[in-house]
Specification:
Keywords: ATP-binding, Nucleotide-binding, Transport. The chain has 274 residues and is of the alpha/beta class. The chain has 11 helices and 10 strands. The protein has a single domain, classed as Rossmann fold (3-Layer(aba) Sandwich), CATH 3.40.50.300. A hairpin with a 3-residue loop joins strand 4 (85-90) and strand 5 (94-95). Bound molecules: adenosine-5'-triphosphate. Adenosine-5'-triphosphate binds at residues 41-42, 44, 46, 64, 66-72.
Length: 274
Protein backbone atom coordinates (compact mmCIF):
# COMPACT_ATOMS: atom_id res chain seq x y z
CA UNK A 1 0.00 0.00 0.00
CA UNK A 2 1.36 3.45 -0.88
CA UNK A 3 1.90 6.04 1.82
CA UNK A 4 -0.94 8.12 0.34
CA UNK A 5 -3.35 5.21 0.43
CA UNK A 6 -2.23 4.35 3.89
CA UNK A 7 -2.73 7.90 5.15
CA UNK A 8 -6.12 8.12 3.50
CA UNK A 9 -7.38 5.36 5.69
CA UNK A 10 -8.92 7.56 8.35
CA UNK A 11 -9.85 4.69 10.64
CA UNK A 12 -6.27 3.89 11.38
CA UNK A 13 -4.21 5.50 14.07
CA UNK A 14 -0.70 5.85 12.76
CA UNK A 15 2.27 4.84 14.85
CA UNK A 16 4.20 8.05 14.21
CA UNK A 17 1.27 10.15 15.45
CA UNK A 18 0.58 8.10 18.49
CA UNK A 19 2.71 8.80 21.52
CA UNK A 20 4.41 5.57 22.40
CA UNK A 21 2.67 4.29 25.50
CA UNK A 22 5.60 4.62 27.81
CA UNK A 23 6.52 1.27 29.25
CA UNK A 24 8.47 2.81 32.11
CA UNK A 25 7.49 1.23 35.43
CA UNK A 26 7.62 3.61 38.39
CA UNK A 27 5.20 1.75 40.65
CA UNK A 28 7.92 0.63 43.02
CA UNK A 29 10.47 3.39 42.81
CA UNK A 30 11.98 6.37 41.06
CA UNK A 31 11.85 7.17 37.37
CA UNK A 32 15.62 7.52 37.14
CA UNK A 33 18.16 5.69 39.22
CA UNK A 34 21.95 5.99 39.05
CA UNK A 35 24.03 3.88 41.40
CA UNK A 36 27.80 3.93 41.94
CA UNK A 37 28.46 5.32 38.48
CA UNK A 38 32.07 5.98 37.51
CA UNK A 39 33.57 7.46 34.37
CA UNK A 40 37.20 8.29 33.72
CA UNK A 41 38.64 10.20 30.79
CA UNK A 42 42.32 9.41 30.32
CA UNK A 43 42.65 8.48 33.98
CA UNK A 44 40.71 11.54 35.20
CA UNK A 45 37.65 10.54 37.25
CA UNK A 46 34.94 12.85 35.85
CA UNK A 47 32.13 10.91 37.56
CA UNK A 48 33.03 9.40 40.89
CA UNK A 49 30.67 6.92 42.60
CA UNK A 50 27.68 8.99 41.58
CA UNK A 51 24.35 8.05 43.17
CA UNK A 52 21.22 9.90 42.12
CA UNK A 53 17.50 9.19 42.05
CA UNK A 54 14.78 11.28 40.41
CA UNK A 55 11.15 10.67 41.34
CA UNK A 56 8.36 10.49 38.81
CA UNK A 57 7.02 13.97 38.10
CA UNK A 58 9.78 15.69 40.02
CA UNK A 59 11.49 18.94 39.01
CA UNK A 60 15.13 18.65 40.08
CA UNK A 61 17.84 21.24 39.69
CA UNK A 62 21.46 20.15 39.41
CA UNK A 63 24.09 22.71 40.22
CA UNK A 64 27.83 22.54 40.67
CA UNK A 65 30.97 24.38 39.67
CA UNK A 66 32.55 24.09 36.23
CA UNK A 67 33.86 20.61 35.64
CA UNK A 68 31.68 19.05 38.38
CA UNK A 69 30.40 16.42 35.95
CA UNK A 70 26.93 17.75 35.15
CA UNK A 71 27.20 17.40 31.37
CA UNK A 72 28.88 14.02 31.68
CA UNK A 73 26.03 12.86 33.90
CA UNK A 74 23.48 13.92 31.24
CA UNK A 75 25.60 12.17 28.60
CA UNK A 76 25.46 8.96 30.61
CA UNK A 77 21.69 9.09 31.07
CA UNK A 78 21.09 9.68 27.35
CA UNK A 79 23.54 6.99 26.24
CA UNK A 80 26.13 9.33 24.75
CA UNK A 81 28.81 8.26 27.22
CA UNK A 82 29.13 4.75 28.61
CA UNK A 83 30.22 4.62 32.24
CA UNK A 84 33.09 2.36 33.31
CA UNK A 85 31.05 0.91 36.17
CA UNK A 86 27.68 1.40 37.87
CA UNK A 87 23.97 1.07 37.13
CA UNK A 88 21.56 3.42 35.38
CA UNK A 89 17.88 2.49 35.32
CA UNK A 90 14.82 4.19 33.85
CA UNK A 91 11.99 2.99 36.05
CA UNK A 92 12.42 -0.53 37.29
CA UNK A 93 12.41 -2.16 33.86
CA UNK A 94 14.92 -0.41 31.66
CA UNK A 95 18.61 -0.79 32.13
CA UNK A 96 19.85 2.23 30.16
CA UNK A 97 23.37 0.88 30.01
CA UNK A 98 22.23 -1.80 27.58
CA UNK A 99 20.70 0.76 25.19
CA UNK A 100 21.96 3.20 22.59
CA UNK A 101 20.99 6.87 22.23
CA UNK A 102 17.98 6.42 19.89
CA UNK A 103 16.62 3.57 22.01
CA UNK A 104 16.87 5.69 25.14
CA UNK A 105 15.20 8.64 23.39
CA UNK A 106 12.36 6.42 22.24
CA UNK A 107 11.73 5.33 25.82
CA UNK A 108 10.74 8.92 26.54
CA UNK A 109 13.92 10.68 27.65
CA UNK A 110 14.22 14.05 25.89
CA UNK A 111 17.27 16.27 26.09
CA UNK A 112 17.43 19.99 25.50
CA UNK A 113 20.92 21.29 24.87
CA UNK A 114 21.94 24.80 25.84
CA UNK A 115 21.89 26.25 22.32
CA UNK A 116 18.50 26.29 20.58
CA UNK A 117 18.40 24.21 17.41
CA UNK A 118 15.08 25.06 15.82
CA UNK A 119 14.54 25.12 12.05
CA UNK A 120 14.74 28.84 11.38
CA UNK A 121 13.26 28.72 7.88
CA UNK A 122 10.13 26.96 9.11
CA UNK A 123 7.27 28.44 11.09
CA UNK A 124 6.71 27.74 14.76
CA UNK A 125 3.85 25.44 13.79
CA UNK A 126 5.97 23.58 11.22
CA UNK A 127 8.75 23.06 13.73
CA UNK A 128 6.31 21.38 16.08
CA UNK A 129 4.80 19.42 13.24
CA UNK A 130 8.20 18.16 12.23
CA UNK A 131 8.98 17.14 15.79
CA UNK A 132 5.85 15.04 15.87
CA UNK A 133 6.30 12.96 12.77
CA UNK A 134 9.24 10.65 13.09
CA UNK A 135 8.88 9.58 9.49
CA UNK A 136 9.86 12.76 7.64
CA UNK A 137 8.87 11.36 4.22
CA UNK A 138 5.21 11.67 5.05
CA UNK A 139 5.23 15.35 6.06
CA UNK A 140 3.63 16.83 2.89
CA UNK A 141 0.93 14.19 2.79
CA UNK A 142 0.57 14.38 6.51
CA UNK A 143 -0.29 18.06 6.31
CA UNK A 144 -2.93 17.47 3.67
CA UNK A 145 -4.88 14.65 5.20
CA UNK A 146 -4.09 14.26 8.86
CA UNK A 147 -4.82 17.71 10.23
CA UNK A 148 -7.35 16.83 12.86
CA UNK A 149 -5.21 14.11 14.36
CA UNK A 150 -2.21 16.27 15.13
CA UNK A 151 -3.56 19.80 15.31
CA UNK A 152 -4.90 19.35 18.83
CA UNK A 153 -1.57 18.17 20.10
CA UNK A 154 0.26 21.08 18.46
CA UNK A 155 -2.29 23.55 19.88
CA UNK A 156 -1.84 22.07 23.31
CA UNK A 157 1.95 22.43 23.12
CA UNK A 158 1.70 25.96 21.65
CA UNK A 159 -0.35 26.95 24.66
CA UNK A 160 2.07 25.31 27.09
CA UNK A 161 5.06 27.15 25.61
CA UNK A 162 3.13 30.41 25.21
CA UNK A 163 3.71 30.80 21.47
CA UNK A 164 0.10 30.55 20.24
CA UNK A 165 0.22 34.02 18.73
CA UNK A 166 3.44 33.29 16.87
CA UNK A 167 2.41 29.98 15.38
CA UNK A 168 2.73 31.18 11.76
CA UNK A 169 5.91 33.21 12.25
CA UNK A 170 9.21 31.90 11.01
CA UNK A 171 11.27 30.50 13.86
CA UNK A 172 14.21 32.56 12.60
CA UNK A 173 12.62 35.81 13.79
CA UNK A 174 11.91 34.58 17.32
CA UNK A 175 13.85 35.97 20.25
CA UNK A 176 16.43 33.74 21.92
CA UNK A 177 14.00 32.92 24.72
CA UNK A 178 11.18 32.10 22.30
CA UNK A 179 13.48 29.75 20.39
CA UNK A 180 14.33 27.97 23.63
CA UNK A 181 10.62 27.54 24.42
CA UNK A 182 9.94 26.31 20.91
CA UNK A 183 12.64 23.69 21.27
CA UNK A 184 11.17 22.58 24.58
CA UNK A 185 7.84 22.37 22.75
CA UNK A 186 9.44 20.19 20.08
CA UNK A 187 10.54 17.79 22.79
CA UNK A 188 7.06 17.87 24.34
CA UNK A 189 5.50 16.77 21.06
CA UNK A 190 6.95 13.33 21.73
CA UNK A 191 5.33 13.26 25.21
CA UNK A 192 8.54 12.49 27.08
CA UNK A 193 8.52 11.03 30.59
CA UNK A 194 11.80 12.68 31.52
CA UNK A 195 13.17 15.96 30.20
CA UNK A 196 16.82 16.87 30.68
CA UNK A 197 17.37 20.59 30.23
CA UNK A 198 20.83 22.10 30.03
CA UNK A 199 21.24 25.75 31.11
CA UNK A 200 17.85 26.90 29.83
CA UNK A 201 18.17 30.56 30.81
CA UNK A 202 21.70 31.34 29.61
CA UNK A 203 21.44 34.51 27.52
CA UNK A 204 17.81 35.23 28.45
CA UNK A 205 16.33 38.53 29.60
CA UNK A 206 14.83 38.72 33.10
CA UNK A 207 11.36 38.53 31.63
CA UNK A 208 12.24 35.48 29.56
CA UNK A 209 13.72 33.85 32.65
CA UNK A 210 10.49 34.38 34.54
CA UNK A 211 8.48 32.85 31.71
CA UNK A 212 10.90 29.91 31.54
CA UNK A 213 10.50 29.35 35.28
CA UNK A 214 6.73 29.21 34.79
CA UNK A 215 7.08 26.84 31.87
CA UNK A 216 9.39 24.37 33.61
CA UNK A 217 7.36 24.35 36.81
CA UNK A 218 4.20 23.78 34.78
CA UNK A 219 5.80 20.74 33.12
CA UNK A 220 6.71 19.07 36.40
CA UNK A 221 4.09 16.61 37.52
CA UNK A 222 3.20 15.79 33.92
CA UNK A 223 6.78 14.67 33.33
CA UNK A 224 9.96 14.59 35.33
CA UNK A 225 12.30 17.48 34.62
CA UNK A 226 16.01 17.68 35.42
CA UNK A 227 17.50 21.14 34.95
CA UNK A 228 21.23 21.84 34.98
CA UNK A 229 21.70 25.55 35.58
CA UNK A 230 24.37 27.98 36.78
CA UNK A 231 22.05 30.90 37.45
CA UNK A 232 21.37 30.68 41.18
CA UNK A 233 18.52 33.19 41.13
CA UNK A 234 16.75 31.08 38.56
CA UNK A 235 17.41 27.84 40.44
CA UNK A 236 16.02 29.41 43.58
CA UNK A 237 12.88 30.46 41.71
CA UNK A 238 12.05 26.96 40.47
CA UNK A 239 13.77 24.45 42.70
CA UNK A 240 12.06 22.22 45.15
CA UNK A 241 15.05 19.95 45.47
CA UNK A 242 18.58 20.79 44.44
CA UNK A 243 21.48 18.40 43.92
CA UNK A 244 24.98 19.83 44.18
CA UNK A 245 27.60 17.97 42.17
CA UNK A 246 31.28 18.35 42.92
CA UNK A 247 34.14 16.35 41.45
CA UNK A 248 31.74 13.86 39.94
CA UNK A 249 29.81 13.07 43.13
CA UNK A 250 26.78 14.38 44.98
CA UNK A 251 28.06 16.82 47.57
CA UNK A 252 24.69 17.88 48.97
CA UNK A 253 21.00 17.51 48.26
CA UNK A 254 17.96 19.31 49.63
CA UNK A 255 16.03 22.54 49.33
CA UNK A 256 17.87 25.57 47.95
CA UNK A 257 18.03 26.98 51.48
CA UNK A 258 19.48 23.75 52.84
CA UNK A 259 22.18 23.40 50.22
CA UNK A 260 23.09 27.07 50.16
CA UNK A 261 23.64 26.96 53.94
CA UNK A 262 25.69 23.76 53.79
CA UNK A 263 29.27 24.63 54.80
CA UNK A 264 30.76 22.17 52.29
CA UNK A 265 28.73 23.68 49.48
CA UNK A 266 29.68 27.20 50.50
CA UNK A 267 33.31 26.14 50.55
CA UNK A 268 33.48 24.44 47.17
CA UNK A 269 30.86 26.21 45.17
CA UNK A 270 28.72 29.05 46.40
CA UNK A 271 31.74 30.41 48.24
CA UNK A 272 33.52 30.80 44.92
CA UNK A 273 30.76 33.07 43.70
CA UNK A 274 30.45 35.17 46.84
N1 LIG B 1 35.40 13.66 26.53
C1 LIG B 1 36.18 14.08 27.52
N2 LIG B 1 37.50 13.84 27.56
C2 LIG B 1 38.27 14.24 28.58
N3 LIG B 1 37.81 14.90 29.66
C3 LIG B 1 36.50 15.17 29.68
C4 LIG B 1 35.60 14.78 28.64
N4 LIG B 1 34.35 15.19 28.97
C5 LIG B 1 34.45 15.82 30.16
N5 LIG B 1 35.73 15.80 30.60
C6 LIG B 1 36.20 16.35 31.85
O1 LIG B 1 35.37 15.83 32.87
C7 LIG B 1 35.10 16.83 33.86
C8 LIG B 1 33.61 17.00 33.99
O2 LIG B 1 33.13 17.71 32.84
P1 LIG B 1 31.62 18.13 32.62
O3 LIG B 1 31.57 18.83 31.30
O4 LIG B 1 30.75 16.97 32.82
O5 LIG B 1 31.40 19.17 33.80
P2 LIG B 1 30.21 20.22 33.99
O6 LIG B 1 29.80 20.12 35.41
O7 LIG B 1 29.17 20.00 32.96
O8 LIG B 1 30.96 21.60 33.73
P3 LIG B 1 30.36 22.98 33.14
O9 LIG B 1 29.53 23.56 34.23
O10 LIG B 1 31.60 23.78 32.89
O11 LIG B 1 29.60 22.66 31.90
C9 LIG B 1 35.84 18.09 33.42
O12 LIG B 1 37.06 18.15 34.11
C10 LIG B 1 36.05 17.87 31.94
O13 LIG B 1 37.22 18.52 31.50
Amino acid sequence: MSIIQELSNRDRVFEFLTPVASPVDVRHGPILYLEDVNVSFDGFRAINNLNLTIDDGELRCIIGPNGAGKTTMMDIITGKTAPDTGSVWFGSRHNLLTMNEPEIASLGIGRKFQKPTVFEALTVFENLELAMATDKRVIPTLRAVMKAEYRDRIDEVLETIGLENLRDQLAGILSHGQKQWLEIGMLLMQKPRLLLVDEPVAGMTEQEMERTAELLTSLAGKQSVVVVEHDMGFVRSIARKVTVLHQGSVLAEGSMDQVSNDPEVIKVYLGEEA
